[in-house]
Amino acid sequence: MSSSRRFFRDKVFALPLSGESFLLRRAGHSVLVDGGWDRDDVAKVLERHFPALDKIDAVICTHGDGDHAEGLPQFLLTWRGQIGQVWLPGRWVEVIPRLLQDPSGFMDELIEQLRTIIHKNAPNPVTHSPFDRSEDDRHETREMKGERDEMTPDDSGEDDTISDDIEPDFGSSDTDDDPPWFADLRAAKDLPSSATASRAFEKANTNITQWKDGGSLSDKVALSWLGMVKTVKAIRGIAAAAIAQHLRVRWFDYEAFAKTRQPKGGIPGFLHPINAREQAPVPSNLKLLMALTLINRESLVFYAPPSWRRLGVLFCGDSPLGDGRGFKQSFLRETARPFYHIISTAPHHGSDSNKAAYRHVGEWADVAVFLRAGGNIYHPGQTFKDLVEAVKLCAKCPAKAQVPSIVGVEARDWPGWFMPRIIGDPCKCV
Questions:
Q1: pTM of this prediction?
Q2: Is 369 exposed, middle or buried (0-12, 13-18, 19+ CB in 10 A)?
Q3: CA distance 8 to 26
Q4: Which of 161, 182, 246, 344 could bridge to 178 as Cys pair (CB 3.0-4.6 Å)?
Q5: Measuring CA to CA, which residue among 236, 234, 231 is closest to residue 185?
Q6: Rounded Cα distance, 265 and 157, in Å
Q7: Distance between CA atoms of 262 and 277, rounded to whole angstroms?
Q8: Over its length of 430 residues, how does the chain's per-residue pLDDT go in tens digits?
């Protein structure tokens, strides 16, 4: 390892987007976590603020919401620098094969399912969407049905420590370790074009909008379904871009974690999952509505453990950091409590819908800084505003009506790194 990498001061930044995206620079390597909306153009943001950045070792998508995933397909295809690999949710395997092989048939089937729901509710408008169900309801339903397997111990525990003298191992960039179904997609010569897929998505949007305008769908439900179309468009785009750019894909399965409560994979000591196991599930032909309902609630969480010189960072995505009724079962229980203070991203842009996450992370670690990105005029919520024991940094702060700007944290040398150097102005949301 070169001396320049060995003594690289870790940094983590919230990017100034309307969606959510973070850049981690750690031990001389760079990781992009989520890519905001398509309109955010994360490639231009990186070029403007980090002109010397020429390689991203891993691009991570925590889940399929448009404000996290929509900007990644274009980024993977057009960013001027080198990209090492892509880390994706394992749940996506339920929809990627069909989305790549037959996007028109996929969307026709989905719209037909919505048409059936509308007919069942005629003449009243549909006011409830499966994508709007609360987390408590979803988890209660699964547990009542007995669908969760008994928790089983796992003896493959990972070492959270990282030496400042050891190069983190991202492994080979070779795609030979693809699961068979994804290798087949890479090898296919006749996959439908992006233009064909775009027409299928636009047709679905038109149908949904017409049903809303005709009174068959409430505005809220129509917005939910239109958001779902954005999700499947982003999922297809990311998978297609990874294939086109010959990028290695690594899969992180939430469902495998839910069964074992033992996270596994990633790069030990550098960055690893909190609520997933690295493995590529086999597509199971789950019904489309069920698969898509599950995709976004299973937002992945990743953790870069601290050392005496390295920043510790928890990337929460949109996760409440727990499951069960009231999200009381913390995902963090199986991960060793950090010895040093950490940086945590604000779950779901600081929304109160994820306020359980603050309790879980507060019981598990000493948080020096909460780093917030993206969101809308309703973000952050009161729970985030009431935080007093940590510095709050917002790349986009509605309370100050500021122009979005880079904010972040840089590690200091021992003994004072846990009083990190703040980049940008602390948030004054009250």
A1: 0.90
A2: buried
A3: 7
A4: 182
A5: 236
A6: 10
A7: 7
A8: 444 444 578 999 999 998 999 999 998 899 999 999 999 999 999 999 999 999 999 999 999 999 999 999 999 999 999 999 999 999 999 899 999 999 999 999 999 988 888 888 777 788 777 776 444 433 333 332 333 333 333 434 444 545 555 578 887 777 778 899 999 999 998 999 999 999 999 999 999 999 999 999 999 989 989 999 999 999 999 999 999 999 999 999 999 999 999 999 999 999 999 999 999 888 877 778 777 877 767 899 999 999 887 899 999 999 999 999 989 999 999 899 998 899 999 998 888 888 899 999 999 999 999 999 988 777 888 888 888 888 899 998 766 666 788 999 998 765 455 678 899 888 777 6
Dig out the tokens for 298 from the structure. 């299973």
By residue count, the chain amounts to 430
